[in-house]
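Session log. Operator J.P. requested a structure for one protein chain; no other inputs attached. Running the standard single-chain path with token output.
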Amino acid sequence: MRAQYQNVHHQAHATPPRRPGIAPIVPNAQAQAQAQARERHLQMQKDKYDHQLARRRANKPTDKHMPDGVEDLIIGDGVQQYKRLREVEKKLDSVMMRKRLDMQDARQSTSKKYKTLRIWISNTVENQGWQGNSLDEDAFDFHTGPDGTYRMKIEGRLLEEDDGDSSDKDSDEEYDESLGGTAPNGDAMDHDGQTPKKTPRSPAFPQRTKLSHFFRRIVIDFDRSKSSQPENLAPIEWEKPDVPRNSTVLPAAADFDCLEFERKSDENINCTINFSRDDQPQRFLLSDALADILDSKEEDRESIILGIWEYAKAMGLQQDEEKRLVQCDDRLRKLFNRESFYFPDLIPQAFLVEHLEAVPPISIPYTIRVDPAYHSQPNPPPTVYDISIPIASHSHPPPMPNPQHLQVLSQLDSRLALLIQGTQQSKAKHAFLTEMSVDPVGFLKRWMGSQRRDLEVIIGDGLGMGKGDYGIQEGVGVGPEWRRGGADGVWGKDEVKESVQLMVGKERRGH
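Structure written below.
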């Protein structure tokens, strides 16, 4: 009984079966269809407008060449002057195009010029024995005093062209310990006695001005001494982190102009500071054979390839049939050890590996002074070095032309083309009337025959040989329909009338 009740209860609450019928109507279907129709209509209108503009541009006259024979019909030398002006315009256009291409090449490639990077090296001392911090012999304190230390600074600044003669003044008079910032944390150093300059506008290309911008690695090696502790003579090394090329924002570890460190020592130490240049692009030291061809001791890869190409062109070593095949002269034979080479083979630079070496670091000696004879001076002078650094010289982009001037020039060109078109039509009218004045009857017959042949071509009737007004002629209609006149013949059909109207309208548009 209970099982039957549960079965009846389940059947009562069961979902009734779904009946087939019409699917529900989406309320926005009609609106979406109308929107799509509107979009199609707008697209068709746009395509039609673009087609009309294209046809208008295609029909726009562009020929500015004076027709031949016009100078015989015009009094004066106006036509000769116009032709001379056209020749000058062609030469000017050629020069401007060549200059534009030269400027594009100059913007894509960078030339090298050298500037002076001035390096100041100095050190200060603390807790040295001669500074009064030594152990008192009469005291009963047997604890050792603080160890003597020194603090070394390496500062650099790129000199402008008008700062080249200021080395003595900077090193002897204006140098002060407040010149430097701290260790490589990005703080800029302030120079006393210098007038602050106005902040220039941001250049079009990233400028390198700080010490860390020009070097990828700085290593300080110390000379070994028996009395110094080994940990105090370990080399100090800074290496630039990976930075995207031409990046405008640099991390603090790659954007500083003062490198500073402190160590323990109570005696003078000799050290060597090695600066490994960060050339962009990377430059290489050339072998003697390659340097003899390029007339340079170091170059980057692109300059090496271009230099060999220019050398082959200048010496006339290219084959006449294949310009990329180069016959070696004595210098190239010494460089490649072969009689000829295919220039694209130089792109992988397999031939040049043995002639390229890494540029050695710039080594600067310095003595860390901790003796009282040196530091007893009021302002101990720093050691100053000038380093010649190659700087990429980017050409400035050319000035943009004035849009108003370009619009005026375009309008003048259009007017000139219309005048030339009118001159051509006037010359054709002059030839037409002149020929008709010599033989009016014969000219009209020839003209009518020409018009009849044009109609045959337009309507689609084939050209053949037939008997015309001047005997057997080519292009005369030979069918009987064309020879028969009357309103009910072929000449009275709507197609012929439409063709005649088309020809007349075309001639009117041409005039």
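Operator note: The two ends are 108 Å apart (CA to CA).
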